[in-house]
Amino acid sequence: MSAPEDRRDKLRKAAHSYMRLSGIGFQMAAIIGLGTYGGWWADRRTGWGFLAFTLLGALGGVGMALYILFKETRPR
């Protein structure tokens, strides 16, 4: 392989990694946001003074997001 082809392959691999990890990041943000919103919605429906469901939804979203992160980034 010539030098321009090596450079092109390196750029292609770097772009692929960047896109893959960016997608995982957006997915994590969406999961945490939806969990938090779902908890906020449940707290609004119950009328409690303490935002218990919001806290549970946010922590559940973080847990799910970390699970997906570990699942997607483990070596194959």
Task: Please describe what this structure looks like.
The protein is an all-alpha fold. The longest helix is centred in the first third of the chain and has 44 residues, at 3-46. The model has no long low-confidence stretch (mean pLDDT 91). It is 87% helix and 0% strand. Helix 1 runs antiparallel to helix 2.
What overall form do the CA principal axes indicate? rod-shaped
- What proportion strand? under 5%
Average pLDDT rating: 91
Decide which structural class fits the backbone: mainly alpha
SSE topology string: HH
How much is the radius of gyration in Å? 19 Å
- DSSP summary: helix tally: 2
- Could you estimate the helical fraction of the residues in percent? over 70%
Major beta-sheet overview:
none
Could you state the oligomeric state of the chains shown? single chain
Helix-strand blueprint:
Elements: H1 3-46, H2 52-73
Considering the chains and any ligands shown, give keywords for the structure:
87% helix; rod-shaped; mainly alpha; single chain; 76 residues
Summed up:
It is built from two helices and no strands.
